[in-house]
Design brief:
Layout: H1 2-23, E1 28-37, E2 59-66, E3 74-82, E4 87-94, E5 98-105, E6 112-118, E7 123-129, E8 134-138, E9 140-142, E10 150-156, E11 168-176, E12 182-190, E13 195-201, E14 206-214, E15 217-225, E16 230-235, E17 243-246, H2 252-262, H3 265-295, H4 306-312, H5 328-339, H6 346-368, H7 372-380, H8 388-400, H9 403-409, H10 411-429, E18 440-443, E19 448-450, H11 451-455, E20 460-466, H12 471-487, E21 492-498, H13 503-513, E22 518-521, H14 529-533, E23 541-546, E24 551-554, H15 558-571
Parallel strand pairs: 1-7, 8-12, 9-13, 10-16, 20-21, 21-22
Antiparallel strand pairs: 1-4, 2-3, 2-5, 5-6, 7-8, 10-13, 11-12, 11-14, 14-15, 16-17, 18-19, 18-22, 20-23, 23-24
């Protein structure tokens, strides 16, 4: 009897123990290994032994970020350590696949980071390159938590006739949420024996941009990934620049949207013809420039050529009905040159054909695809970019795709493209001989300044758009200051408009460069009306205005400005 009761009790304990084990996950180990890869200096008989790099002892942390719906997610250190002689092996415990961030302190303002997925029994390897200082997975990365959403991008690039040692592959997907906030997902892998493999997950079909970097050289291709997709990178000709993404299975959205035109013989024959024509054109251009330099080597470099002066000399034509009419002949000359039949360089003609071989199938898909997702992907790949037809396709997709997709992938892109079209229209509407739009902005010294209050008191005004972060802007300022010091009077003034979004940076740069003229800024990110009205897509950008606010010249250099003002003075 006692034996029977003992057996029953033992069996009960076994059941309880089994139940507990199934309800509590048992933590298992994961391993992350890191390797420092130093530069390989050219061999020299007199070369001194290199000193160890500080990166060989870099600190490494594996972080778990807890979003919790907050703007500043908290971080927990899962495991950490320092490299020893350029190597590190970190082991931690995890019970389920978890997204982590590998953070490496390399002495910069912010650490280098890689997002990864650790799982019980999984091993990851990363590499830290000395130059360029890059953090990447070594050979392969697996960031899958749900195999039903898995995709793969891989390649064996040993047939490429280019040294790919220490080259990296970067796959990048940009996504927006319903509010328009952009998130970027990167998979960054260092080639190992010219091979790589990226295994990730994606919830819906997306365009991925794939870059291959080797020092200052890079090439780029695109792929369409979706759950279950396998994409292979390979070179069609052995050239580094001809590496493209293909679908080995011949199926899926990538095959339909990209392979359908990219794997056609005519495309590659045309691409080779373009490369040949471009090389020939560049060679001819170099020969012409060399010959010109040799023929003018004895001339005074400060002497202006008649061609340069003709571009900036004002033409005076009396027309009381239009204040800006005196500049109409120059506008007509520009228009005439734009419409006159000229010989198109061979490489341009071939490039146009190459682009049509790519865009014609995509635009056909965008207009006629039965699956609206195919049409959306065609737009993502560039169909109808810069054309009003793109807006028409977006409007149709807004009615056929589900509301969530429309909020995330249609509305914001459509609005961005609408702004781009509007911007282009403004750029082409502000040509020589038209009136500059009025505006009012705050100056660095405090008071509000109206553009036409300045214009009415001066013969000419240079309206200059710039930013503190714009290298070419800062480089041009000393020469512009020289012209200003020489010409500033009631005849000439400069009005600069900074597009900095931070008033502190604008103020610091202005004080450092000692800007002497009227200095305005449009620092409110929510209000960029002036820059938008003037079609400012890049800086530096400027407009030279006369006393009536007419645009006399656009995008003039300091040297061209000086010649113009000197010519104007001589006419008085």
């Amino acid at each position: 009897m006692k034996q029977t009761q003992l057996a029953q009790y033992t069996g009960f304990l076994a059941i309880v123990a089994a139940s507990v084990c199934t309800s509590i996950a048992v933590a298992e180990t994961f391993t992350i290994r890191g390797t420092f890869i130093a530069d390989e200096p050219e061999a020299s008989l007199n070369a001194e032994p290199s000193t160890p790099s500080r990166l060989e002892a870099a600190n490494v942390k594996v972080l778990v970020r807890d979003g919790s719906g907050t703007e500043q997610p908290s971080t927990n250190v899962l495991v950490s350590g320092s490299m020893q002689n350029g190597e590190i092996s970190l082991t931690g415990e995890i019970d389920t696949p978890t997204t982590v961030t590998i953070s490496v302190d390399v002495g910069l303002e912010a650490p280098l980071e890689l997002d990864a997925v650790v799982a019980p029994g999984r091993e990851l390897s990363f590499a830290l390159l000395e130059w360029p200082t890059v953090l990447a997975f070594l050979g392969t990365v697996n960031s899958v938590t749900d195999t039903s959403q898995q995709f793969k991008i891989y390649g064996n690039l040993n047939s490429v006739n280019f040294d790919l040692k220490h080259a990296t592959v970067l796959a990048r997907v940009l996504k927006r949420d319903s509010l328009g906030e952009v998130t970027v997902t990167n998979w960054h892998v260092l080639l190992e024996d010219d091979r790589f493999e990226i295994v990730g997950e994606i919830t819906e079909p997306r365009v991925v941009n794939v870059f291959i970097y080797k020092g200052a050289n890079y090439t780029q291709t695109q792929a369409v990934i979706e759950p279950g997709a396998e994409i292979e990178l390979k070179s069609q000709s052995g050239s580094f620049k001809d590496v493209v993404a293909t679908s080995p299975s011949g199926g899926g959205k990538h095959a339909m949207l990209i392979d359908s035109w990219q794997q056609v013989d005519e495309y590659w024959l045309t691409k080779r013809a373009y490369t040949t024509a471009l090389n020939s054109y560049q060679k001819e251009l170099l020969e012409q420039r060399t010959a010109k330099l040799e023929s003018t080597s004895q001339q005074d470099e400060t002497t202006s050529s008649p061609v340069e002066d003709s571009k900036i000399e004002p033409e005076i034509v009396s027309d009381e009905s239009d204040e800006c009419a005196q500049y109409a002949p120059r506008r007509r000359n520009v228009q005439r040159q734009a419409t006159t039949a000229v010989e198109v360089p061979e490489h341009v003609r071939v490039l146009r054909k190459l682009n049509r071989l790519r865009l014609d199938p995509l635009e056909n898909t965008a207009k006629h695809a039965e699956d609206p997702m195919d049409a959306l992907l065609a737009l993502d790949l560039g169909a109808f970019w810069g054309e009003s037809e793109r807006q028409t396709v977006y409007d149709r997709l807004a009615e056929t795709l589900d509301s969530d997709t429309v909020r995330r992938r249609v509305i914001h892109d459509r609005n961005d493209h609408a702004r781009y079209l509007s911007q282009q229209q403004k750029i082409f509407s502000l040509f020589v001989g038209t009136k500059a739009p009025e505006f009012t902005l705050t100056s660095l010294k405090g008071p509000l300044i109206e553009l036409y209050d300045v214009i009415k008191d001066h013969q000419y005004v240079l309206l200059e758009f710039w930013a503190s972060w714009c290298g070419p802007c800062l480089k041009a300022l000393p020469n512009l200051k020289n012209v200003y010091a020489k010409r500033n009077s009631n005849r000439f003034e400069i009005v600069s408009v900074s597009i900095d979004r931070d008033r502190t940076q604008w103020k610091a740069a202005s004080e450092e460069m000692e800007i002497p003229w009227i200095n305005l800024a449009e620092t409110d990110p929510a209000n960029t009306e002036v820059a938008s009205t003037y079609g400012v897509e890049y800086v530096p950008k400027n407009y030279l205005l006369d006393r009536n606010g007419c645009i006399v010249q656009k995008d003039v250099t300091a040297a061209q400005l000086e010649r113009f003002l000197a010519t104007a003075d001589n006419r008085e």
